[in-house]
Amino acid sequence: MKLKWAYLAILTGIAGLLAGCEPLLVLNPKGPQAETTANVIWLSIITMSFIVVVVLVMLTVILFKYRASKQDPDYEPPHIEGNKYVEGIIVTIPILIVAFLSVVSTISTHQVESPPEGYAEDEPVVIYASSSNWKWHFSYPEQDIETVNYVFIPTNQNVEFRLYSHGTISSFWIPQLAGQKYAMADMTNYLNVVAEEPGEYMGRNSNFNGEGFAENEFTVTALAPSEFDSWVEDIHNTADPLTEEKFEELLEPGHLGQMTFNGTHQEFKPAPEGENSPHDHGGSSDSEEEGEHHHH
Amino acid sequence: MDFFDRFTIPPHDDPMLYASIVAIGLVSIAIVLGVTYFKKWGYLWSEWLTTVDHKRIGIMYIISALLMLFRGGADAVMMRLQTAVPDNSFLDAQHYNEVFTTHGVVMIFFMAMAFIIGMMNFVVPLQIGARDVAFPRLNALSFWLYFAGAMLFNISFVVGGSPDAGWTNYYPLAGTEFSEHVGVNYYNWALQISGIGTLMTGINFIATIMKMRAPGMTLMKMPMFTWSALITNLIIVFAFPVLTIALLMGTLDRQFFTNFFTTGDGGMDMMWANLFWIWGHPEVYILILPAFGIYSQIIATFSQRNLYGYKSMVASMVIISLLSFMVWVHHFFTMGQGAVANSIFSITTMAIAVPTGIKIFNWLLTMWKGKIRFTTPMMYSVAFIPLFTIGGVTGVMLAIASADYQYHNTMFLVAHFHNVIIPGVVFAMIAGLIYYWPKMFGFLLNERIGKWAFWNIVIGFCLSFFPMYITGLNGQARRMYTYSEASGFGPLSMVSFFGALLLAIGFVLIVYNVYYSFRYAPRNVGDDPWNARSLEWATHNPVPEYNFAITPNVNSSEAFWDYKKNGHDLFKGEIKDIHMPNNSGWSIIFAGIFFVFAFCFVFHVWVGVIIAFAGIIGCLLYRSFEKDDGHHIHKEEIEETEKKFGGAK
Amino acid sequence: MKLDSKNLPLEYSTETNRMNILGFWIFLSAEIMLFATLFTSYFVYVDRGVGSGPAGAEIFELPPVLIETFLLLTSSFTIGLAVHAMRINRVKAMIGFMVVTLLLGAGFLSVEVYEFIHYYHIGATLQTSGFTATLLTTLGTHGAHVTLGLFWGIMIIIQILRNGLNARTANKSFIFSLYWHFLDVMWIFIFSFIYLKGMM
């Protein structure tokens, strides 16, 4: 018995330790999308804690009150089939909770799937983020530059990441800025990201894609728009051009560290969207629909 | 390629691997020598390997499940050890990938599935007062196909290399372009074979439960475990064919160069994910519903009260089974199917919380006004309720699509599904095993050692998995073989490793308990050691071959309780000759040939494939022409057996 | 057991027989799921564009498909006649109809083999595209079922010839007829949703 309590003490100790730590990445948002998800997560934690507490309290009370050692040896528990009202309550309360969370889920999912409020009117900065084993390639069609394993974005502006893959399915994730989305070979996904604070953020592929998966990370640097423009200008003046042969070389499996190029691979190897999407042959086009959906 | 090259393992500079190969070899040799030395081959063959008795098949399933639990558990400890500290180099990336892949596959298909099917095999016919299942021979074949699949999967480790694309095996990663060696072929064939076995189990148990219930047992008078088994097997019959096709497509892609899941030529990599989860989500409920059934039996027994809300328990299982086919998209909310589709699947997923919640409250209300005895099975059930509630509510959190964009593919998800599967399925199976142990072997497992194991397992579980919720929210993706110190995952991962060790100690204690109790436990436990309620306890411990000397006459879902307390006349009539099926070596031989077939297929050894295929046809022909009418156990023999147990029941 | 077994047809006359028939119905529901999965996949791949390979309309030919349909539908009718003959205990007629059924089945398979060879020659193989792979896998799964049925039917005929019509052989024949009807129904789906829809 003593050991039991010792174990429990360790457990509470750890919980206490955690409470004192710095905020967890997902719960420490730096942009409106991640803020929405963080709020939803807090809301669901609170709602769900209520259920856990109710169950725990009921269980504890029942176990203390009705344990055999506490009762008359002659006590014969009654036969109870069930009760309309009690069962009505245990159906209704979960339904109400689920209904509430369904509304939360639907609203918040629509929110994070569209450009965040206040940023929807402006033209987004488009960046293609494509994955290959085990790297991320970022093409800036507007700026005509390409980076590997790092991305610079301007703050307070909607950045539209267009995600696809040169092979395996990967998942593009910057925990502090927005939830993740898959990058796949035969369609392009869209992810709206706004950084409201300058800084450097961790981004990674979160979907297992083989041997080099653990190191499949990139850094996101959010800069004031003017600094972003001068960064682009710098690259135009210093970086090597990206040729098709060079890009094929980059696609070979491995890790490359950070790289910078003039020009993008979109010119010779475009993303699977619009007329380059395999969906297009059949007549119905998912990517078009998503493109539209995306721009309202 | 030289013929024998294909059987070599992809290069590892890993002494551990060779050590394990040697260990496996030595253990196999020891088993063979041991059986030979004690001259048990004949006994083993005639009493176990050829048996069609549902009780023995159930026990064989459970033994295999325990073996697989240790195989998968060793993988788990290796993973926790590798990630216990940042930048660890105990396992390299490739080896780690193989380890977590085999951990998942072994635990789901060869441990959990085998455990629940074993439990159903042993308990269901007893609970409905039947002599055996509807198709005893088919049942033996199911077991041996499962076993062949499990063995095939396990030799991948030493011949040719293990699969390394995760238990979800997503394409194109699992295709030949990114996973060249034979690992995924093993995955396809091992699951295909054992999947066929499972499908047969599904058919068998539906027929059994629909047709073989004792007189008086209407559907609404079935004990709750039988209800859960019926619904589970219905799900099996509807879900497993989807897996069959998905695996067939995977095999064709990998071995015949088709374009189902490739990224060019009209292929579609997401199709695998869809098919896999259309099977995979119902599979979750295939695992959990029988566990719910076990808990219902145990909680009622040790609260010494009838199960509260029988009808709503049944209704909630039916609703869960229907919903289970409508939620698969929540496994890839992040695939980009848009907010509308995600919202719909988010709502269907959360809807499952309602029937599940009803069950939780029904169990609580079963204990209410009861007289609760804290035996080991009951302690697992009591621990199950809060832990499973936590697992369930984190499931609801994951079901909120927008939030899932942050949880998906992280340790938060890993924590969630272990949080439902371990307290849900594993606790239930251990509790069920301890509960039914006297029915299987005629003695009780030691309670003191059992409780030590319980505390290790429960606390080990909490320490292992609760920290993962936190590291997940802190941005730790799952399936990473290592992480940097700067990430800050280190301390909590160390706690997880410590928890894994406690879990391991707990499971070792369970095995020790078996050994200890086998040697020292008293054998005079009688037929009703737990003061139980449902029909399976109305026969003897251990159960005689024919189950019930006289077919019982049932009046309620707690027929045995009514017999004990309310004077219900359970056994009307007198002892007659009993017709029983004959043992047969056909099933094990057939499954053995299937094993050879699949093994040759994995390695493209076409001559072997053709020969084995001829063997399969031969077995089917033999079966078609075979005449086997079974045998009778004579009245005198039954009376003698019953006398030994102290009077007929 | 309380049922009066004299009033039941031979194939239902024993407990085992009734159990076999129920079990087979459950098996057929699993088979329905199997084919449903194939059909669903087919609809996904056919709507997706066909990669570098041909589309359905370019390779489907009506005459062989019509012949196949005719042969299989007729065989479904003749197996029904065989079961009817069994019910009225006309063993010779029953075997006759079963032989006709199997011959029609063999005819169906020959045309299907011709069809496959044709596809191969015009460059629509298993490897061509996601669409052809699904098409040929669906047709192939059905064809494999018919092939298995042929051998199964032959075994049953041999057993009736050797042992006469009894509870066991009647049970097998009846279950075989269920299987055969099922394959016919699946073919109607294939005919309507793959061929006709593809050619329209």
UniProtKB/TrEMBL annotation, chain A:
Biological role stated in the UniProt entry: Catalyzes quinol oxidation with the concomitant reduction of oxygen to water. Subunit II transfers the electrons from a quinol to the binuclear center of the catalytic subunit I.
- NCBIfam families xref list: QOXA (TIGR01432)
The main location is membrane
> Is Coiled coil included in the keywords of this UniProt record?
no
Please report which protein family the annotation says this sequence is part of.
Belongs to the cytochrome c oxidase subunit 2 family.
Q: Which PROSITE patterns match?
A: COX2_CUA (PS50857), COX2_TM (PS50999), PROKAR_LIPOPROTEIN (PS51257)
Name it: Quinol oxidase subunit 2
Q: Which EC class is this protein assigned?
A: oxidoreductase
Which residues span the membrane? 40-64, 85-107
Residue ranges of the Cytochrome oxidase subunit II copper A binding domain? 122-234
Q: Where is the composition biased (Basic and acidic residues)?
A: 266-283
Q: Which UniProt keywords apply?
A: Cell membrane, Electron transport, Membrane, Oxidoreductase, Respiratory chain, Signal, Transmembrane, Transmembrane helix, Transport
Give the taxonomic lineage as stored in the record: Bacteria, Bacillati, Bacillota, Bacilli, Bacillales
Q: What is its EC number?
A: 1.10.3.-
Q: Where in the cell is it found?
A: Cell membrane
**Limits of the Cytochrome oxidase subunit II transmembrane region profile domain:** 18-116
Classify the protein's membrane topology as the record does: Multi-pass membrane protein
Q: Which organism is it from?
A: Oceanobacillus sojae
Tell me a GO biological process for this protein.
ATP synthesis coupled electron transport
From TrEMBL, chain B:
Cofactors (names): Cu cation; ferriheme a
Asked if Glycosyltransferase is a keyword of the record, the answer is no
The Cytochrome oxidase subunit I profile domain sits at: 39-555
Question: Tell me, what's a Pfam family for it?
Answer: COX1
Provide the membrane topology annotation: Multi-pass membrane protein
User: Which residue ranges traverse the bilayer?
Assistant: 16-38, 59-79, 99-126, 138-159, 189-209, 230-252, 314-333, 339-365, 377-400, 420-437, 449-470, 490-515, 588-617
Q: Which SUPFAM superfamilies match?
A: Cytochrome c oxidase subunit I-like
* Catalysis: reaction(s): 4 Fe(II)-[cytochrome c] + O2 + 8 H(+)(in) = 4 Fe(III)-[cytochrome c] + 2 H2O + 4 H(+)(out); 2 a quinol + O2 = 2 a quinone + 2 H2O
Describe which pathway this protein belongs to, using the record's wording: Energy metabolism; oxidative phosphorylation
Task: Please tell me where this protein is predominantly located.
Answer: membrane
Molecular function GO terms recorded:
copper ion binding; cytochrome-c oxidase activity; heme binding; oxidoreductase activity, acting on diphenols and related substances as donors, oxygen as acceptor
- Keyword DNA-binding found: no
User: For this chain's UniProt record, which GO biological process terms are given?
Assistant: electron transport coupled proton transport; oxidative phosphorylation; respiratory electron transport chain
> What's the stated role of this polypeptide?
Catalyzes quinol oxidation with the concomitant reduction of oxygen to water.
Q: So what family is this one in? A: Belongs to the heme-copper respiratory oxidase family.
Top-down, what is the taxonomic lineage of the species of origin?
A: Bacteria, Bacillati, Bacillota, Bacilli, Bacillales
* InterPro entries from the UniProt entry: Cyt_c_oxase-like_su1_dom, Cyt_c_oxase-like_su1_sf, Cyt_C_Oxase_1, Cyt_c_Oxase_su1_BS, QoxB
EC numbers listed for it are 1.10.3.-
Q: State the free-text cofactor note.
A: Binds a copper B center.
Protein name in UniProt: Quinol oxidase subunit 1
Compartment(s) of residence:
Cell membrane
Give a Gene Ontology cellular component term annotated to this protein.
plasma membrane
Recite the UniProt keywords alphabetically: Cell membrane, Copper, Electron transport, Heme, Hydrogen ion transport, Ion transport, Iron, Membrane, Metal-binding, Oxidoreductase, Respiratory chain, Translocase, Transmembrane, Transmembrane helix, Transport
Q: Which organism is it from?
A: Oceanobacillus sojae
The primary gene name is qoxB
TrEMBL record, chain C:
* Protein name in the entry: Quinol oxidase subunit 3
Q: Which NCBIfam families match?
A: QoxC
Keywords on this record? Cell membrane, Membrane, Oxidoreductase, Transmembrane, Transmembrane helix
Task: Return the GO cellular component terms, semicolon-separated.
Answer: plasma membrane
Could you tell me which CDD domains the record lists for this protein? Ubiquinol_oxidase_III
Asked if the record carries the keyword Disulfide bond, the reply is no
The transmembrane segments are 21-45, 65-83, 95-122, 142-161, 173-196
Q: Which residues form the Heme-copper oxidase subunit III family profile domain?
A: 1-199
Where, subcellularly, is it found? Answer: Cell membrane
Name the SUPFAM superfamilies on file. Cytochrome c oxidase subunit III-like
Q: What does this protein do?
A: Catalyzes quinol oxidation with the concomitant reduction of oxygen to water.
Reaction catalyzed: 2 a quinol + O2 = 2 a quinone + 2 H2O
Presence of the UniProt keyword Lipid metabolism in the record: no
**Topologically, how does it sit relative to the membrane?**
Multi-pass membrane protein
Specify the species. Answer: Oceanobacillus sojae
**Looking at its record, which EC class is this enzyme?**
oxidoreductase
GO biological-process terms attached to the record: aerobic electron transport chain; ATP synthesis coupled electron transport
